[in-house]
Design a protein that fits this description.
This protein is mainly beta. It folds into 2 domains: about 1-95, Immunoglobulin-like (Sandwich), CATH 2.60.40; about 110-804, Maltoporin, Chain A, CATH 2.40.170.20. It contains 7 helices and 49 strands.
């Protein structure tokens, strides 16, 4: 009996020794030797895993025994796997992850830079996403707090702000929107070329002082600096693109050309016409290393957009089952628009020493916008009798019969010249950043537009004796002000026994000579990652944010001798918003047989107090301001986002937001034009198990309708809401040729290609009728009827993408 017990004890001791706990420690860096935070480090086929900290360090405990497979993964980087053969003692294992620039699955980075509330998005998603433009903004529309209700436009609103309240940077250069565009049909291409993008950062509020004077959001784009030859070409029913990049010695360049046409999409609308929209742009980003520490770079862009439109007929049915109506128009006339923009920036930057970086940038922007149209329409608005009991061809069924003529000869030229200095200094646990900018703005506009309406032989508004125009607008203005701005901010990391604190604080100031206004914007953020639970973080950010006027905001309309004339209000002030944003991230799940990285649940609660607001109305993508600081208001809400890999290597996500955006105009409380009480978005990806060559992506949007007021009335005089915006797009991609295909080794022609993909997209798969704006029909009694302008219907698109 004693011998048996001793034998069992020896077996237990040997078993314990055989299965002892082994610690694996190390550091994970990228190819530039920079520490990578939030890298998933896990044991394959196990739920045992951890994350790297802010210094890229990790500790993983495993059980000794057989060989251990350790997997390092971070979306946007190539996944690495290491095998440790039967470890018997603690192991030190460092890893270097390379950025994944291959055309793989669509992914989105669940990582958030908690100090500045900037979320990084993987640009590869736009290459495969199913949407009419394939733009980064269309992917952005599926993120929490972001709304887009016009598939023809790259514009978006964020947490109650309008299009003008979003600031966009490319390589630190601010990008400007055209001033004259009034319709998404005319808008053309987004500035951002997805083929050239390296990183994408986005913040919906509470961003740091290094970003400019806008009230809603920041989109921060960095174009890539190729390290080897790369090229691609794509073509489809909506246009095509080519890009080429290479590196030779000290010089590197990446250049892209894009062409878009929306003729096939516009053919699905109610208006039958001869459409000729042509949008072309060319961009280049070049760098040259003057020395190991100094670099000069050039960013250039040329865009030429033309829109020609000859309407023929339109028939729109609308109303309810009880009051069905039809609006029919026969057109005569034409519209010809042209928008040409140039932008260039030359940057010199370098290292004074290992801790001090400085740089200087000179940039220029020029835009020549012209809008011309003469369109005449003869319309009939009548009630429909769906029962068939009554004769609907008699005069009693007609609600309005009339004509209208629209005329415009508009021209705007704008130029912006900028020179700026920037720098950063690392001092211990502090990172100090600063910048100084001088900007010269030249804008000249000539506006001449009018509209005449006639109903039953009476010009509207009818006096019984006079012939009047329904509306008219004239302008001949020129300004040439200067703007001075600067910022300074510090980021401090503080490790304690309780966890890691990250504090960011800064101040931004700007002075504009047009209205002689000085604005000062203090901003800050604090984040906390508790010790022992790096899967959870919480942050608080906020500050004062101004919407510095550029040109449209201070245009006000006055009546001069019966004509509406635009004058410039020199007493205009910057609109003001105080942000408070509380958010958190939580990583959970992961592991399992597929060894997928954890899911991530993010949430933010925000409040924005608004003052000195300039009331405005939105018609399609045209924002028309009142030119007076006559309103105040607030925006409050919450956003939730869930990210995760339901299949390895392809992220999907769901976002949901609740919001209330209200303004008070002359004591009357009304919603902001961008008020949406709910917003739901989905992006999902899948592929055939064991057959990854065939992939699918699904994009869905559902949001409450926007407030609408009658033209020239304003929301304070009454409003109603459009129907909810609902849209689902689906896309399929099939890899015809890839690097691992055997035919590449035997066929010289195939060797020239890296990857070839064929795609089939179905836009608006359920053919939902979404309302963008309304055409207002007025009868002789000056009663107005709102006739909906529907957006695009179901549309197929075939495309091919080849990489070299």
């Amino acid at each position: 009996m004693i011998k048996k017990n001793i034998l069992l004890l020896l077996i237990s001791i040997s078993s314990f020794a055989y299965s002892q706990q082994i610690k694996i420690t190390g550091k994970v860096v990228n190819q530039h030797k920079e520490a990578l935070e939030q890298v998933s480090v896990s044991e394959m086929n196990s739920r045992n895993g951890t994350m790297t900290n802010s210094k890229g360090e990790y500790t993983l405990t495993v059980t000794s025994g057989d060989s251990v497979r350790i997997v390092f993964s971070l979306v946007g980087y190539q996944r690495h796997q290491y095998i440790i053969a039967k470890p018997t003692q603690d192991v030190s294992l460092n890893a270097e992850l390379k950025e994944d620039n291959e055309l793989g699955a669509v992914t989105i980075e669940g990582q958030r830079t908690v100090t500045t509330v900037i979320e990084r998005i993987d640009y590869l998603a736009t290459r495969r996403a199913s949407n009419p433009w394939g733009s980064i903004e269309s992917l952005l529309a599926t993120m929490g707090g972001v709304s887009s209700t016009n598939e023809l436009s790259s514009q978006y609103s964020v947490r109650g702000g309008n299009f003008d309240e979003n600031i966009v940077y490319v390589n630190g250069i601010e990008i400007y929107r055209p001033l004259l565009v009034r319709s998404a049909q005319q808008e053309g291409l987004s500035f951002i070329n997805p083929d050239m993008v390296q990183t994408v950062g986005f913040s919906g509020g509470g961003f740091s002082a290094e970003y400019g004077d806008k009230m809603s959001s920041v989109l921060d784009i960095t174009y890539k600096k190729p390290e080897k030859f790369e090229a691609s070409a794509s073509a489809g029913l909506l246009g095509g693109s080519v890009h080429i990049g290479n590196s030779s010695g000290r010089f590197s360049q990446i250049t892209g050309i894009r062409y878009k046409t929306t003729r096939s999409l516009l053919s699905t609308t109610d208006t039958k016409a001869e459409y000729d929209p042509t949008f072309i742009d060319a961009q280049t980003y070049m760098t040259y290393d003057l020395s190991p520490k100094w670099e000069v770079s050039l960013l250039g862009n040329y865009s030429h957009n033309t829109y020609e439109f000859s309407p023929k007929t339109r028939s729109t049915s609308f109303g309810t089952l009880m009051t069905p109506r039809n609006f029919t128009v026969h057109f005569d006339g034409w519209e010809k628009d042209r928008f040409i923009t140039y932008q260039a920036a030359l940057t010199l930057k370098g290292k004074i020493n290992e801790n001090l970086n400085v740089g200087i940038t000179g940039s220029t922007f020029s835009s020549d916008e012209r809008e011309r149209y003469d369109i005449e329409g003869s319309y009939v608005l009548k009630e429909l009798d769906l029962s068939g009991e009554n004769d609907t061809t008699d005069d009693s069924s007609y609600l309005g019969i009339g004509k209208y003529i629209e005329h415009a000869r508009n021209k705007v030229k704008s130029e912006v010249y900028t020179i700026s200095h920037f720098g950063d200094l690392k001092a211990g646990d502090n990172l100090l950043k600063w910048g100084l900018t001088y900007q010269k703005e030249n804008v000249r506009d000539k506006i001449n537009e009018w509209e005449m309406r006639d109903s039953a032989g009476y010009s509207l508004p009818s006096t019984g004796t006079d012939v009047n125009l329904y509306s008219n607008l004239k302008a001949d203005n020129k300004i040439s002000p200067s703007r001075f701005s600067g910022f300074i901010q510090d980021t401090y990391r503080w490790n304690t026994d309780k966890g890691l604190f990250i504090i960011n604080a800064g101040v931004r100031a700007s002075y504009w000579t047009f209205n002689e206004e000085l604005i000062v914007s203090p901003r800050g953020a604090i984040a906390f990652v508790p010790a022992g639970n790096e899967n959870f973080s919480v942050r608080l950010a906020g500050g004062i944010y101004y919407q510095a006027p550029f040109y449209k905001e201070f245009q006000r309309t006055v009546n001069v001798d019966g004509n509406n004339v635009i004058e410039l209000n020199k007493d205009i002030k910057s609109q003001k918003s105080i942000h408070i944003v509380l958010g958190s991230d939580y990583y959970f799940g992961g592991g399992g047989e597929r060894n997928t990285p954890p899911f991530k649940l993010s949430g933010e609660i925000y409040y924005k107090k608004l003052s000195d607001l300039i009331p405005y109305t939105v018609n399609n993508v045209k924002i028309r301001y009142s030119g007076e600081n006559s309103a105040k208001g607030y925006t409050m809400g919450m956003d939730f986002k869930l990210y995760g890999e339901f299949i390895p290597g392809a992220d999907s996500w769901i976002s949901f937001g609740l919001m209330k955006a209200q303004q008070e105009i002359d004591g009357i409380k009304v919603p902001l034009p961008t008020d949406q009480r709910f917003n739901f978005a989905l992006f999902y990806q899948d592929y055939m198990p064991g057959y990854e060559r065939l992939r699918m992506s699904l994009r869905g949007l559902w949001s409450q309708g926007l407030p609408v007021s009658a033209p020239y009335k304003g929301y304070e005089n009454g409003y109603f809401r459009t129907p909810a915006y609902k849209r689902v797009d689906i896309g399929f991609s099939w890899q015809v040729l890839g690097e691992k295909f055997a035919i590449r080794n035997t066929n010289s022609f195939c060797k020239a290609f890296k990857n070839v993909w064929l795609g089939l997209d179905v836009f608006n798969i359920f053919d939902m009728q979404n309302t963008n704006t309304y055409y207002w029909v007025t009868d002789v009694y000056n009663q107005q009827y709102a006739v909906p302008n529907y957006l695009t219907g179901r549309q197929l698109n075939v495309k091919i993408l080849a990489e070299f």
